[in-house]
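Request: How about a record?
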Amino acid sequence: MDNSDIITRFLIISDTHGEGLPTNFSLDFYADVVIHCGDLTNQSKLHEFESTLKMISNIEASLKLVIPGNHDFTLDRLAYTALLQNGDLEAKLVEETYGKYGKVGDLFAAYPEIQLLTEGTDEFDLSNGARLLLYSSPYTPSEGNMGFQYSREVGHTWDIGEADVVITHGPPEGVLDRTLSRERAGCPQLFAAVARQRPKAALLRAYP
């Protein structure tokens, strides 16, 4: 289908960290697609996920998509397991506060209109008649112990392919990636992949 003459409106949010939208927030247009670019929570606690999911559910849109961020570490099996094994989380609070791995998926199941994306390519037929080919990834470069992180020395492979839209939690190097200390936090491999493939849009969280 030729999408060139179909107007598709996106609402992009990110880093809500379990907080709701401002009380004075109002949307003066209908969003065909709402995308949360990660960090739904601050400490990956169940009540923070619940708050963010409830907030997204109250936004009117035909398609609602979410990717995790580094703060959403309970969605990353390897990171969550490492935190538990290292004793970085209090064992007695884990099940009640964070839930066992997979518990967050149960929360998402209560909001079937919100789709949690992992890394990869997905295709969606929108209610306005457009077809959207989308690449998403929650991964960011860091030496920390939070979720969905990789070493800068090792780098990361970004298999964007022919995606119309790229959604990432972290920015490409040199694009809205200055931290509060004025350092570059973006990924050079992501910059190269986006520059090479030239998708119609690259949607991401910005620093600081």
Remarks:
- The longest strand covers residues 131-137.
